[in-house]
Amino acid sequence: MNLVEATRALQRRVRDTDADNIDRPGAVDLAPALRELLQIHAHRYYVLDDPVVADAEYDKLLNYLERIEQRFPDLRTPDSPTQRVGGPALDRFEKVTHPDPLLSLSNAFDEAGVHTWYERCRKTLAGSFGDVVPTLTVEPKVDGLALALTYVNGLLDVGATRGDGRVGENITANVRTIASVPLRIPVNRDELGKADVPGAFEVRGEAYIKKSDFRAQNERLAELGQKVFANPRNAAAGSLRQLDPNAVAERPLSFMAYSIGPATGDLPDSQIQRLQWLKQVGFPISEHVKMYEGVEDAVAYCRRWTDARDELDYEIDGVVLKIDNIEYQDALGAVSNAPRWAIAYKFPARESTTTLVNIVVNVGRTGMIKPEAVLEPVEIGGVTVSQATLHNEDYVVSRDIRIGDTVAVKRAGDVIPQVVKPILDARTGDELVWRMPQYCPACQTKLVRLPDEADYYCMSADCPEQFIRLLEHFAARGAMDIEGLGSKLAVTLAEAGLVQHLPDIYRLTRDDLLQLEGFADKKADKLLQGISASKKQPLSRLLFALGIRHVGKTTAELLVTRFHTMHELASASVEDLTAIDGIGVVIAESIVDWFAIDKNVELIRNLEELGVNLEEHQATGNGRLAGLTFVLTGSLSLFTREEATLRLQALGARVTSSVSKKTDYVVAGENAGSKKDKAVELGVKILNEQKLLEILDA
Ligand code: IVH
Fold it and tell me: In Å, how far are 342, 346, 585, 623, 678 from 660, measured between CA atoms?
C-alpha cells in the first residue's frame, strides 16, 4: 500500500469512529497508526516541501489524534506529532535554539469552537481577575513560514526559522534579503543614554510570498525551465531554504510581524499596542487587525474573512484570535505547544485529493467540447465536489492526468472546481491515458480543432446537445430570463420535439405543456406567462441570449449603444462594428458571420413575427465619469465584471481591456495579475472594489 492509499484507509477509519467516544481498544489501535502516518506527512511537508495530502486533511487527522490522546493521556508518546510544533531543522544551516519556544496555535474549525475557547479563557481568568470580558484582537493568519528575528542594539542579529519550535535554522543571510525586514531599528537615547527600544528583543512573524509575486515567479521559473511551485507557501519555504543568499534575494519574499518574543526591556502591555509599536519601529504588520470587546463581533469578523480572503494579495488559511491583555495572556499560559490565550479559526480548505473516476466530454452551446472530470465525491470547503473541469485536451495531456489517478482538486471562491494535478506517488500502473474523442458524443460528427485554439468543436448545426445548451442559455437569467425554463425543462422540451428551434419556445401552447410529465394547469400557465414576458426583454438581452460566439453580456450592451435595432446590427460591417470602443475584429467578424447565415436571419424574422422585441434605445452616458478610462482586472466579488462595466459606462466612463498611459484607473480584483503590474509600472492609480463601489454610488 502506498502513502496515499494508507492515508485514505486511515481517513475512512477516522470518519467511521467518533474520537470523543472511542473505546480504549480502538484508541490503542488507531493512535500509533495515526502518529506514524502524520510523521511521514509532516516530513514531506516541512522537510521535503513536497506534501501529498492537502493541509486540511493533515490537520483533520492531527486533530483526531489530539482528541484521542486527550481522552487516553497515557497513550500519548513523546514523539507524537501533537507534541511538537513543526518538522526538524535541516542540517545544512546552523542550528539556533530559541530562548522561548515558538509555539503553535490550537485550531477552531467552526464558530462554536471559538466560543468554547473564549468561555474557557474567561473561566480561567475568573480566578485571578473576576468576571472579565477580555478584549480580543483578530488578525489574518498568513500562510507562510514562521520566523524569529533577533535585534540587538537595534540591528538585525539573527534570523531563524521555527524548526521544531525549540531548535530552528539560522538563516540570517537569507532573511536579510527580504526587503520588508528592517535591518536596523531607529534607536533614540535620552540624556542618560537610555535607549527607547529594548537592548535585545525578538520579533516573530511570517515570511510569505504575495499571490501576484508568486504568479510572476512561477512564470519566470517556467521560462527558465525550472520547477514551478505548487502554492505561495511552498514557494516561500523553498525560496528561504536555499543555501545561496543571492538566489534567495531574487525571490519575492515578504514579511509580516505578529508578535514580540523575549525582550530585555519594557514593552507595551497589550497585543494591539505591541503591533502598533512594531509598526512604528518599521515592521510590516497586517492592515486588517481588529479589536473587539467580547467574542460575538470577533466571530462575525472571522466569518467575513472566510469569503473575503480572496481580496487579499496573500494567502491566509484562517484568522488568529488573541486575548489582547498581556497580563491575561501570562495568566492563561500554554498547554504543551500552544498558548491558551490564542486560537486559530481555520477556514474550510479549498483543495483536497480524490480519485478521478472518469473523464467525460460535454458539448457546449457553441459546439465547444470540454473534458470534465468525474470524481469520487469529496468535500472541499463545505461543498461536495463530484465534478471538476479539465479545461481542454492540452491541459490533461501536459499534466499527464489519467483516469484512475488520485488527483488534487481545487475549489476557489465561486469558481468551478478544477483538477490541479495527479498525485504521481499514488500511481498503481492501472491508470488509463485519456485522449479527446474524435467524434461528437451527441451527434457523431467528426470534431475539429481550430487553428490557434486549444478547444475542439462539433461543427454540426443540427447537434441536439448543442441545441439543448443553447436553449438553456437563451432562457437563463441575464439572457431572456424565462422563469421556470431551466436545464431540466430544456432537455424535456427538446427531447419531446416541442422545441426544435428557438422560436418554437414562443409557439408553445398550454396543451403542449400539459402533455408533459409534472405539468398541471398552474405550472403551465406560469411558464407561458414567463415566456410571454420575455418577449419584452431589451435587445441587448436578446443578443446575448442568441449565443453568438464572443458576444457576452458586456459586448451585447456595448453593441446597443451604437445599434438600436436588430436590423441595424444585422447590416453592420466589420468596420462599423470595430468603430465601437471595446469591439475588436474577432468579435466583429463573429457577428457579421452569424448574420450571414440564412438560418439565423430566418430565426430573427421568426422571433419578430412572434412578437419578440428587437429594439433598445439607450441613453449614451455623458455623465459624471465622462472622459475617464477604466480597466477592470482580476475577478470581482461585489459585482460581476459585466455589471461593473455597464455601471461605469452608464456614468460616461470608458472601459477598456488593456492598460496604457491613457488609463486613469485600474480596478484590481482577486488574483489581479499582469495588468495590475503594468499599472504600477506606469503609475496608473489602482482601486480596489470597495473604492469602485464608492465611486459608482457617489
Ligand atoms: S501567533 C504563540 N499570529 O501560524 C502564538 N501566528 O499555526 C503563535 N501565524 O506558527 C503565533 N499568522 O507561523 C500568530 N497573526 C498571527 C499569525 C500566526 C500566521 C502562523 C505562525 C504560527 C502558526 C501556527
Answer: 47, 40, 20, 23, 8
